[in-house]
Fold:
Amino acid sequence: ITDTLLFWGKSFEDINDDEQLIVNLEEKIYKLLDTTLRSSECSGVFCVLDATCNTGVPQAEDSRMGLYLRYSDLSGVNTVNTHVAYFRGSPEVARKENVPMHNRWNLEFDTGILPGYEKMMNTSATKMADHCLWTERVNLKDNCEDVTLMCVPILDGNGTVRGICGIELSDLYFQLSYPASDSAYGCMTAVFASMEDNVLNLDKAMIGETRDDFLNAAGSLVVNEGKYYNTYKSDSEDYVGLHRYLMTHTVDGKQMVVVTLLSKDGFQDAISRERRVWIMISLVFLVIMLAVSWFMSRHFMIPISRLSEAIREE
Structure:
């Protein structure tokens, strides 16, 4: 971005209201986003710069330029036939790159519904990696899909934050990436959520594929950590599993965790079955050992008894 501005003899402050400059910038940004989307495990990528094409409109305060590319027909993970849709950005760039417009396309981003945007823009970032933040699950504007966004600040040569970029994980992509898994202890599922004061927030969580309403994205889970596994209690059902803390936080400072869950009832039933099996094995082993002991005693003790009787008779 900085190189493009220098090439055109412009500064970042000159971007506002300059539609041609915005198109030029977005053409450069498109190449980077397209490469990132096709090489990363995500369902979308975006880049937002702190500028707008028309500062005179009433919504200009929350409207910001940028690009947003998304997969339009997710039916599997890492499939070669997945198509890219143009969700945000200048239509000139979409026509030049021959990318179909999303049916909910808009020219610019509405930062008013982008969690943490103002916080990240006002931060004093020195390293982008130190300020990588996740949003909790949010609904895309004018769209029925829910997504979780990973946001990283964009810095200029002076270290000033000029925007944010990142990747998207949609509900559908997460479910396809983490299908329900059968185990000896029942059906397991993955959850990506925020945790605060040992409480998992399911209302804003990403949940992998589930079966038979195993887990709904509503309510919360109270976490009780144990020696070998943890217990996760909800108002209707209890679960067992393990979680791992990530090095990143949400935009409002909550810790992000990845959790593997299975039903506590199913887990206890499996444990009870295993105990019954071991009890039966132990009983069978005891019977066999008694039979072996009786046979060995008969085999070795009879000659000794006969010899002892013969000695007494003599």
